[in-house]
UniProtKB/TrEMBL annotation:
Signal peptide: none annotated. Residues 17-152, 165-304 form the UspA domain. InterPro entries: Rossmann-like_a/b/a_fold, Universal_stress_UspA, UspA. This is Stress-inducible protein. It comes from Streptomyces sviceus (strain ATCC 29083 / DSM 924 / JCM 4929 / NBRC 13980 / NCIMB 11184 / NRRL 5439 / UC 5370). Belongs to the universal stress protein A family. It holds the Pfam family Usp.
Length: 306
């Protein structure tokens, strides 16, 4: 069942916007913070905002919790109130709001497929690593085909201050990180921010060397110069495409997750890539994205690799 709450066609300058910024909300503090973040990003990028709430009828034994229509009305009213709050702060923002009956993961993954990016709330830090996002957030991130941004409860517009950077993790060849770089540079351009591109490296075991790799390292002058050259190569097309975006190249020895987390104090947004893998118990994201999502103090964008 789909209940349309509010719709405004997304027309700007005669051009119909086909990919809105989408926020998934459920009435919690963290989801309302995600909605605020999504609204600000939609204004910056000049897109529409879509707000989605996955809802299911919940009968409670011994408690008068209303019938299906009553509960749908409560959810509709709560969503409308949240939307009024963001449209009150952002006059003229185009909003398309859906209350959808169905499982949260299925609804949000479907919503992400039609979005420029999907924004969700995160509960923040907790005592047990692996449970901070909840099963819904982790499954959506693993299965979504579009970027997903996680926002902590209490996130404020003031965190997006001048001087803080878009920090992006780069790994592999330029083609491997193309979508991650694209997202980071587009976001930085919309915000007037700098990009700090981070490439972490470690000493490989002796058995990993081959005659071909040794030749490449010799030509580059050693491991660290080789990594710097690899990062510069990955950045070159994006520097050319976004000449007004300042770029800081950061190459550091260490695990990728730890190096990225050391940058959170200077970041207004952390951008990482992910390759989801299927296991017997469902989809799982990579260790770098997992670690950053659980421990970064700033919003985190997870971008699927092509």
């Amino acid at each position: 069942m789909r209940i349309r709450v509010h719709r405004i066609d997304q027309e700007r300058g005669g051009r119909r916007m086909t990919r809105p910024i989408t926020a998934g909300i459920d009435g919690t503090e963290e989801s309302l913070a995600a909605l605020g973040w999504a609204a600000r990003e939609a204004v910056r990028r000049g897109t529409g905002l879509r707000v989605v709430h996955a809802w299911r009828f919940q009968p409670y034994e011994g408690i008068d919790a209303g019938d299906r229509d009553t509960q749908a009305g409560w959810a509709r009213d709560a969503m409308a109130e949240a939307v009024r709050a963001v449209t009150g702060r952002h006059t003229g923002l185009d909003v398309d709001t859906d209350l959808v009956e169905g499982g949260s993961v299925d609804v949000l993954v479907a919503a992400a497929s039609d979005a420029e990016l999907l924004v969700l709330g995160s509960r923040g830090h907790g005592p047990v690593v692996g449970f901070l996002l909840g099963s819904v957030g982790q499954q959506v991130i693993a299965e979504a085909t579009r970027p997903v941004v996680l926002v902590r409860a209490g996130d404020q517009a003031g965190a997006e201050v001048s001087g803080r950077e878009i920090v992006v993790g780069q790994e592999g060849d330029p083609e491997d990180s193309a979508e991650v770089m694209r997202f980071a540079f587009e976001t930085a351009a919309a915000r007037g921010a700098a990009v700090r591109a981070v490439r972490a490296w470690t000493l490989p075991p002796v058995f990993a060397y081959s005659p071909g790799s040794l030749k490449l390292l010799d030509e580059a002058g050693g491991l660290e110069p080789y990594e710097k050259k690899a990062l510069a190569s990955a950045l070159q097309p994006w520097r050319e495409r976004f000449p007004d975006v300042p770029v800081v190249e950061h190459v550091e020895m260490g695990s990728a997750g730890q190096v990225l987390l050391s940058m959170t104090a200077r970041a207004q947004l952390m951008v990482v890539g992910r390759r989801a893998r299927r296991t017997a118990v469902g989809a799982r994201i990579g260790s770098v994205a997992h670690g950053v999502l659980h421990h970064a103090d700033c919003p985190v964008a997870v971008v699927p690799h092509a």
